[in-house]
Design a protein that fits this description.
Layout (H helix, E strand, L loop, with lengths): L8 E4 L2 E3 L4 E2 L4 E2 L4 E2 L4 E2 L4 E2 L4 E2 L4 E2 L2 E4 L4 E2 L4 E4 L12 E4 L4 E2 L4 E3 L7 E4 L4 E2 L4 E2 L4 E2 L4 E2 L3 E3 L4 E2 L4 E2 L3 E3 L4 E2 L4 E2 L13 E4 L4 E5 L1 H7 L9 H13 L4 H10 L4 H13 L13
Parallel strand pairs: 2-5, 3-6, 4-7, 5-8, 6-9, 7-10, 8-11, 9-12, 10-13, 11-14, 12-15, 13-16, 14-17, 15-18, 16-19, 17-20, 18-21, 19-22, 20-23, 21-24, 22-25, 23-26, 26-27
Antiparallel strand pairs: 1-2, 27-28
Helix pairs in contact: 2-3, 2-4, 3-4
């Protein structure tokens, strides 16, 4: 005999919704969406084709999720920000395609009207990761278990963050940066760099990540120039602004220019400044 409690039904434009899930009638679920037992989908939610929502997950708020994402059990997306300044504004969470959100991930919406929390494509957020309000994540990022990301943090493409650590609010993590587990991240981590420790310190270039990324085959990439630029910026006795001026007068490939541009922004008054290097 067929068990009605486990049978999937399709009431939302080709989506499959478990009878013990709740989907608000005004939610927009595209073809191939699967909503598992106990999940809750709120009224202003849009979920793209082929995305899977696991058991007991909650998707609420003004949230838009792209195609082929995989949301594991007990994930909470679009909840109010943990910010005392929040006064009920209808802010957004925007999520791209092909992301994986493992068990108990939480992603908060932004604080003020017109603001967004944004996550790109092809990211892996492991179990118990928290993404605070107004964060912006690029694509191809890996956040390991129990990474706690405070509000207004920006993480660029292909960064990898080790487990059991916190990232301070307003910190920026650069392209292809690598942060070791349990590092205290209270300053910006520049692109292509390796950071570790408590307090966190730059240990050099993320050479393994660079090699795995395929950059070594790029004709516009020169590891020697990048290394020389890094040495000038972090191993000289000059002020960072002085080292940046010297670096820009020399030969730069696209990666060393990206490093300089990041640091130029990082030393402005609006930012927390770059993480120091290990002496």
């Amino acid at each position: 005999m067929e068990n009605k409690n486990t049978k999937l039904k399709s009431n939302f434009s080709g989506a499959k919704v478990h009878p013990n899930a709740f989907v608000d009638p005004s939610a927009n679920l595209h073809d191939g969406v699967i909503v598992s037992q106990g999940a809750t989908i709120g009224p202003n939610v849009t979920i793209g084709e082929g995305t899977e929502i696991g058991p007991n997950a909650v998707i609420t708020g003004n949230t838009k999720i792209g195609i082929k994402n995989k949301v594991f059990p007990n994930v909470f997306i679009g909840m109010d920000p943990q910010d005392l300044k929040y006064k009920g504004a209808s802010t957004e969470v925007i999520i791209g395609d092909n992301n994986t959100f493992r068990e108990c991930v939480t992603i908060n919406k932004a604080t003020y009207e017109g603001e967004k929390t944004i996550i790109g494509n092809n990211n892996l957020l492991m179990a118990y990761t928290h993404i605070g309000h107004n964060c912006e994540l690029g694509s191809g990022i890996v956040l390991s278990n129990s990474v706690q990301v405070a509000g207004h943090v920006k993480i660029e493409d292909k960064a990898i963050v080790g487990g059991c650590l916190g990232i301070h609010q307003f910190v920026h993590i650069g392209h292809l940066a690598m942060i070791g587990g349990m590092t205290r991240v209270d300053r910006d981590v520049p692109p292509f760099c390796l950071a570790e420790g408590h307090p966190g310190r730059l240990r050099g270039l993320n050479r393994i990540g660079i090699k795995r990324s395929g950059l070594m085959e790029n004709k516009n990439f020169d590891l020697k120039i990048l290394q020389n630029t890094w040495n000038l910026l972090f191993k000289s006795n000059n002020l960072m602004s002085e080292s940046l001026d010297m670096a820009r007068k020399g030969q730069l490939d696209f990666s060393s220019k990206k490093l300089c541009d990041f640091l130029q922004d990082s030393i402005t008054k609006e930012r927390r400044g770059p993480m120091p290097s290990l002496n």
